[in-house]
Amino acid sequence: MTPEEQETRRLSPPPINEPWAHAIEDVCDRLATDPSQGLSAREARRRRSRWGPNRLGRRSGRSVRRILLDQFKSLVVIILAVASVLALAFGNLPEGIAILVVIAINGTIGFVSEWRAARSMESLRKIGSPTARIRRSGRQRQAPVESLAPGDVVLLEAGDVVPADLRLTEANKLRADESALTGESESVLKTALPVEAAAPLAERRSMLFKGTVVTTGSGESVITATGMRTELGRISELAEEVDEELTPLERRLEQLGRRLAWLVLAAVAAIAAVGIWTGRPTLLIIEASVALGVAAIPEGLPIVANLALARGMWLMSKYKALVNRLPAVETLGATGVILTDKTGTLTENRMTLRRVATPVGECEWASDSQRREEAGDTDDDQLMRRAVEIGVLCSNASLTDTDGDDRGDEAHGDPTEIALLRAGELLGLSREDLLDRKPETREEAFDPESMMMATFHRFESGCEVAVKGAPRAVLSACRTIAAGDGEQQQTMADKDRRAWLERAEAMGREGLRVLAVADKQTDSDGSDPYGDLRFLGLLGMYDPPRMSVKAPVAACAAAGIRVVMVTGDQPDTARAVAGEVGLVEKDQALVIHGRDLVDRDRVSDEDRRRWLESRIFARVSPGQKLDLVKLYQDEGRTVAMTGDGINDAPALKKADIGVAMGRRGSDAAREASDIVLKDDAFSSIVAAVEQGRVIFANIRRAVMFMLCTNVAEIIAVAAATLAGAPLPLLPLQILYLNFLTDVLPALALGVGKGDPNVMIHPPRRPDEAVLTRAHWLAVGGWGAMIAACVLASLAAALMWLDLDQARAVTVSFATLALAKLWFVLNLRRAGSELLDNSVVKNPWIWGSVAACLVLVVAAVYVPWLSGLLKTRALGPGEWALVLGLSALPVAVGQTIRAFQRAGAAS
Q: So which residues are the catalytic ones?
């Protein structure tokens, strides 16, 4: 190798394929680094400039420009922009500018709401350890994680978050929690020795991976990959490859916008054709076309939708939920399936000792205080204490007392071992005190093949061996069974092993994670740790279900929402927890094992039916979670997915609504999600569902209000044009009404508290539009009735009151304005009472009506405004005509509601 090649390799060492399979010396040579010295600061900068900063691509980190542009992608907004351009092109400057102002206001509201959400999400990303302990030029220092480069030497101890993919050079009883990456709940013992090149990710014991956590021990390592080249980075790329779905509300509003576009085009084409056929002046045809275009578009729709969702975002913050995207609030309201993980969402993620079963008897660990008080001198208690003592001795976990409390405040290590240490503390069996009396001289680390762990302890008369592990493995290694006071023993027969195995399986079906403990005495610590053991009993560990989960799960069932547990845990444990929280009937649930989940394209109809009926999926891999989301979506369900691990990111992104955990969730999970629960509580999801349903119902009611009055404008303008009569409304008058007297009541409808019984109805179909066929028929009917009243007022003003055209148009303008205001009362729920409904009891409605009345009067009597709108002052006779005809639609509506209520009562 030439000197130039050596220098190039030193400055930019190539990536290492399969570093877990190479000796430490080979890895360090390829990385051109010395484990005892590390890189120099200059060298690290060079490598970082070559390989980039040690961070993942941040999909959710939307720029200010991106957030702003997203506000103008709606088809309704595009139609408004086209109308503005047409108005300006034909010299209608006030109309064109007014429409642009509407667009600007809508964009500002949406931008501010989503920008604030983006800032909140950015603050969440900063949660965690921002630095790592490294060795640079032979000296230890703390360095920002993003500044690390391949070849850096990283020093590790319990509690550290792994900052990059690392090849271990030293490992001292080092264990890592890789559950966020692999889904395995057990911490993994690491070693500096190479493993097979073909070893799967979970078995690469000479490696540590970015985003995982060191639970016990210490070690040193060199960085082999940073940023997007890490295993975490590859999963992040998988999430990027998943197509992000439009939310149901976004799809529905786009569909509504397309219908409005066709409506505008059809109306304008019809007017133009008739005008040309009858020889009408070109200027009149253009004026009528612009008026129709403005009339057809509910200018306030984007504003109402954005403000309703923004208010939902604010309300969700009260439930400890951070919303990343505005439409996500409504999407949860449309959810038909919630795929939830188990640990930490349905359970407390706090392992405790629940039961001790010994040959003398079985002891329930009902509560901490009870166990402390009941510990006595009976044979049962002595053997129980001995079993717990073995669990305490055979451990790598630790408790740290920081304030004098004998329980300890800080814990490091495997959750199961921590639970045993806490149980020992309650019985006065402190690990520190035990080790003072029985120092540990040797550890036989947990081996996935033997499924056991052992520690040797020296005491006065010899050496004691403490063993814990999987029940089948420990029972196979035992030759005797403890009896009496714990010192006696009897030979173990095959039937005894079978009986204890059955007992362990029964405990597992109750949701307990079962460990077996055994001991023996030997002359030295060089003997076989697993030969001729004495069986002491079974320890049942329990991750308690969250007590607050049962009511939200029941609420989901009442609301027609299917809650499905998707976990990497064992089937028996998953079934038991599901029964505890009310997800299924206890011991009667169908559990689908991950190994049975085959390719969706090759699954039989019978298997698909079983999958869709099951409420529990156990031992599920990250890829299978993604497949389950697609499975339910293929069946036409709106899917919400909860998750916290790195491995959940692809499924969270693919789901219609991704919900990540804020406390224990990984950065990758948060960035892939639409909503982050700051308290990790399942109840917050149900509160969001309820709020989402209310928001959609409010938006639908507001859309009905705006479209009914807009259709009335279309019919009135089109009919007058076809009849050769004066236009009953001028373009700027229509825009004034649509943007002010439409928007204010619509906003009031959009922020109502909604129906208190919203959670007793099944979820909407995913393909259900904002307005169904029945709604469109109602829009057409009410629009025709209001238009008839407007045209009647124009005709009466011209022929009966003998007014000039300007004053007659003012009468029709005022008639439409007041008809809009009274019409809001027709939007109460069918079957509700006249004076007891969500519309009448909404104080915002009455405030908006009062404000709009002032605006209508101002449009007629304020000189500069009436000049702009081309209105004229009206006398008492004209106002009497306006009031009478504008009240007719609401009178008809209340009569219909009365008949509907009477029919429902009968």
A: 341
